[in-house]
Design a protein that fits this description.
The chain has a single domain, classed as Arc Repressor Mutant, subunit A. It has six helices and five strands. It has helices spanning 13-21, 29-42, 63-74, 98-108, 112-128, 133-143; strands at residues 25-27, 54-56, 59-61, 78-84, 90-96. It has a three-stranded antiparallel sheet. A two-stranded antiparallel sheet has the order 2-3. Helix 1 packs across helix 5 (112-128), helix 2 (29-42) crosses helix 5 (112-128) and helix 2 runs parallel beside helix 6 (133-143). 32% of the residues are buried. The mean pLDDT is 90.
């Protein structure tokens, strides 16, 4: 599907802005979920249509975010690659496709509300993306302990 035929929802700006801020790639579904959670909770105004997160295996999780990233993949905006980690687990890595980098760049320079989301995503990624996943999860649990309730993650 061509980039001009893809309709991007306001909510989908969240994963797209995170990908743009991370240089086009985010390693792991858990990392994407935590970055999106932190972006919604700490940076975006309540007026922005974000995601609802529930307590899950590794903290805050949004099924709607997962559905949106899958839709972006079907639309050709994002690629998902499944790899095996050293521990034998599966990791889902996300990459902004070449044809959509310019679309996302134009969005980032769009109207003020959209630009605000991209700027907030850059702050979130700058603060959290370079952390080891373990540290990122622990930071989320320290700041939002209620999300550790259903966790399978052991400290």
């Amino acid at each position: 599907m061509s980039s001009s035929a893809v309709e991007i929802t306001e909510r989908q700006l969240i994963p797209l802005s995170l990908l743009e801020a991370a240089g086009g790639e985010i390693s792991g579904r858990t990392r994407l979920q935590k970055l999106a959670f932190l972006l919604v909770e700490e940076e975006l105004d309540d007026d922005f249509p974000g995601y609802d997160f529930v307590k899950y295996n590794y903290g805050p999780f949004s099924k709607t975010l997962l559905n949106d990233i899958e839709q972006l993949e079907q639309d050709g905006a994002v690629s998902e690659e499944e790899t095996k980690t050293f521990s034998g687990n599966r990791r889902h890595d996300y990459e902004l496709n070449d044809g959509f980098e310019s679309v996302v760049s134009r969005l980032a320079d769009g109207d003020q509300e959209v630009t605000t989301v991209f700027e907030a995503a850059r702050r979130t990624v700058s603060q959290h993306n370079d952390k080891a996943l373990r540290s990122l999860i622990e930071d989320v649990y320290d700041e939002y302990p209620e999300y550790a309730e259903n966790s399978v993650y052991e400290r």
